[in-house]
Amino acid sequence: MSQDIFVVIEHLRGQVAEVSYAMLAGARQLSKADNGEVVAVLLGHNAQGLAHDLAADRVIYVDHPALAEFTSDAYQIVLAGLIQEHSPRAVLFGHSSIGMDLASSLSAKLGIPVVNSCRTFTEDGKFVSQICGGKIMVEGALPAPAALATMIPGGYKTEQGQSAQTPPLTPASAAGLDNLRVAVKQYIEPDTSDVDISKETMLVSIGRGIQNKDNIELANELAQALGCALSASRPVVDQGWLPTTRLVGKSGKHVKPKIYLALGISGAPEHVEGMGESETIVAVNTDPNAPIFNIAKYGTTIDMFDLLPVLIDKVKQAK
Ligand SMILES: Cc1cc2nc3c(=O)[nH]c(=O)nc-3n(C[C@H](O)[C@H](O)[C@H](O)COP(=O)(O)OP(=O)(O)OC[C@H]3O[C@@H](n4cnc5c(N)ncnc54)[C@H](O)[C@@H]3O)c2cc1C
User: Collapsing DSSP states into helix, strand and coil, what is residue 197?
Assistant: First the structure.
């Protein structure tokens, strides 16, 4: 059994997912409890270049054509082998569809407990996890002697998991990848005909609090007055009131505008995953206990339908 903390690096189309950097920062905290090393585990094909800015003590790199795109099948085989060989103290995964798939299946396969939705870790080996749609924070000791954990972004800045120096890379072999049940046939690119909300410097974002499709016009008027785009939380997109290209969060776009104005959005972890790194978050929500206020720099509990007409007028006057 080692005291090392493994971080399974998520990447897509040649880019490391931001949650991977948050995991490296979290792993650094956790590693202080038992003086272990932070070990990035990178699986891919011709993907070693992705290791260049990982803030890890070392990288275990497994190269194989079957690892070029994520499949649960291939990743599980390789990771189970590595965990059995090295016995790390903990293995961190993103709280993403990829990470949740791997953590739960590896937990069942290897008999190692899994802790979900961790936001931060402490230097004395505790996790802080965000549950019940972000309304409750739980702190606890990470199960011993080994644990798996999924991490949501927002607890650490991306830069905390980045390094100017490439960490040493150790290649590891990929056994057992000959008779896989799953293969990736095609990658379907998202629709790019609409505005790209991930490139906007300011966003007016609406949630379920907008109540119905007709009310969207009011938020749109504010966005137009401010000269920015309209984005949304999942219920708005699920109702078909805005296209999926405007969705912010785990199943939508990750945005990092200078100003993110959240109107009637509660701040569930799946939403915060996509906007938690915005420079200034302004929240309008009638519920003073809404989790969005935990990350907002400015906030008000005024009813948005009282606020919006006044705000639109003020912005137009200011122009
Ligand atoms: C696997 C998975 C993936 C998901 N992916 C995403 C994702 O990518 N993006 C995403 O957003 N969600 C995602 N979700 C859903 C997420 O869990 C939440 O359900 C969702 O974010 C809630 O949206 P909301 O904040 O708009 O609605 P609610 O949680 O219902 O919040 C509405 C808020 O509006 C406030 N409000 C109501 N009326 C007013 C008013 N008049 N003025 C001001 N405030 C008002 C309320 O107080 C409330 O806080 C995902 C869930 C799962 C399980």
Answer: helix
